[in-house]
Amino acid sequence: MTKTRAALLVFAALFAALAARPCLAGGFLIYDISGSAIARASAVTADDEEPAAVWFNPANLAFMKGVSASAGGLFITTKTKFSPSGPGPDTSTNRGNFVLPEFFANGRLTDHVAVGMGVFSTFGIGISWPDDWEGRESAIKASLETLTLNPTVSVLVHPQVAVAAGFDAVRSVVDFTNGLPAIIGGDVRLAGGTWGYGFNVGALYKISPDRLHVALTYRSRVRLSFDDGRAHFSPANPDFAPALPDQGGSAALTLPDIITVGLMGRPRSNLALSFDANLVLWSAYDRINIHFDSAPDRAIVPNGQNSFTLRAGADWTLPEQCPGLHLRGGLIFDRNAMPSGNLGPGLPDADRLDVALGAGYGRGHFRGDLGYMLVVFLPADARGGTEGPVGTYNTIAHLLGLTLIATWP
Amino acid sequence: MNCRHENNLAVVRLGLVLTTLAAACTPDVGSSPPAPTAMQFDLTSAPPRVPQPTALLVNPATGQIDFGQAGTPLPADCTTTTAMTEAQCQFDQWLQTLNGFPSLSPASAPASAALDPATLTLGTNVVVFDLQGMAPVTTGLATGFDATSTSLTVTPPGPWTLGEFYWMGVRGYANGVRDAAGGQVIGSPTMALLKQDAALTCDATDPTQVDPHCPGYEVVAQGNPSPAVAALQLFQLEAIRQAYLAGGGFDVMAAAGLPKDELAVLWGFPIHTNSVPLLLPGTAAVPHVPAAGQIVVGVQGPVDPATVSAFTVRVQNGPVVVMDLTAAAAGDLSAGFPPVGAAYLPTVGAIAIQFGAPIPAGHQIGLFFTNGIHSPDGAPLVASPVSVLLRLTAPLVDSAGHSTVSGVADADAAALEAGRQALQPLFDNPIFTPLTGITRANLVYCYAFTPTVTP
Fold it and tell me: pTM for the complete prediction?
């Protein structure tokens, strides 16, 4: 019974992990992936004592005692509205509701060496427009899903300094549906799956342990080459059917490098303030050439630009009144990674302001963290007209994360 | 320590399970049924797979056939061409001298697969419209399917009417012709564009001004690596669409009960206006021998009788030249040019050649007419395609025995090549032209045969 339930849980988790997902940080990066981190605006690089440190900064693992495992999920709901610059009605996406599970585990091998493992989703696109909307030729449905398997090793090189390195194996699946030109009608669906590989390193220096920490992490870019993709053409006008047979195709895109610096300061013993800055090299995501076996090739040109994200978080504890309780909050400013001249409906990126809050409670071997984040996309003008219609995108997203952690000394 | 070890193993197991399962999650995009059979209209293939004959080759400025209209202008010197056979080039050069297509041209429309001949019903699924008569042609024409060229064919019982313009449409989709397997037959992307109600160019004034979001451009650009080339092709298609509209093609089809949305293919073609001495071996369009000393050659269109006269050696340079090829081959030049008379018979529409004595039995006779024969309006007669093929300097079959001229079957080409080779020494003989006035350029009728009296 226990094994069966475990297997079902794994299956359920996997299907959920590979369901379409939205983009929540700049570009299509989903940076906020644990309950406690969400509540602190993910400003946790220099202070993350949970298994999810595998993602945020694995150097933290070397300072953690015992063996821990966490399981969590993010519920994301998002909706985008497009207002054309010319005459015509506004168009809204179908509301996207997504659940992304995350699994982490870590343990100390020796007093100086710890290992960790994470299975998580940190890049994704999930958006669905009405079939007949004016930008249908640019996107009707867009889905890019990733699942990262990330083993890591963390080493305490000094009582106050730890370094870590990890390997990223990224399974990615794309599934796009675009409208065909109006005279042809109908649509084309393209899908493919592939693996990409990268690495990550991190360092944590506890200048004054538990009072002042600094951290630096780097995650490499990951090249995803979809060499065995399939394209299914469904032209509404049958005259075009012989010219557009189902066929193979290929495309490649690159997930960007991420560089993060973090600082944690504890002005009082029960209050941790943290600040992170991410630099995401979205310039790696500049052009996607889609090659079809016989249909004409096409290109998507997002022309991504390197962008930064600023994060500030706070973690307040009440050790005397309510031991084990954490109250958290945070703010994020996230810079748009896609220039307005190349903005399209598949990835209607924008500058964003995020407000986060949450709480956690731990007792004995167990802890639970809940975080909520409101993501307000500032109005984003699409001016180019090459990657989609000209107009303005407005998006609102809500993110709710719950993580359960078990720790054994 | 053991506990920690087991927990680490659990982490590894979980990772392996997820890795294995994640690898199998590429979405199934679905699949399309086999593409239906289509009536083809591909201007970009080589050679183009388009209905023939087609008015698209008529230069509106000159009114004459011009292969430059299709973007494939002919070279001045056919010996230099590599894009086509030399014979094809020479034949097409002759076509370019005409203001319409030869009246003996069969009409055809290529298909991507075999059609069910039983569904090629004239007047319903295959509509032919006589534009000058402003009426559909519902009888007399034979429709069929030629498996060799994979084409629907429309063949008149005799020649097409001179100076006439014919529109032809094929009904496709649910209510139209069927392929050999009983499936629906659809149109082509080109035809879909030509059927658009709005201008394909979105009213741009020149190719450099086309809006990239113009629906027509979006379609054409899909098949083009170069936006500039796509814009040019779009303008060419729009010119064709305009020509279809101006020619009333869609309107006459609708009037004949074939609405635009059921048209799988539509094309039109003019027949030249010049009178022509008919020649099509294997049909009635060959010389008739009603008596041992008389040969009658049918002519389509009016002829000015005053321009019809026979050639007599050193006596009269008439445009009707008759040779006894058997006698000439034996070295008897006197008997090689037997004395004959020639006259136009307006009641039967034929040129009659009267021999002074019965034609020697078993002798091969050569008949040659020049364009010195005119119609009453002064327009010279033009040749029929077979006469042109027989006078070409280039071979009509290649080393593999295949025809070198499109539209001419291999067997027909082989038969004509034998005649061409037999006549070639005559045309190349240095005294033939000075003696008779006949050149390859002015020859409008050329045929060699052994007469058999058929009263």
Answer: 0.78
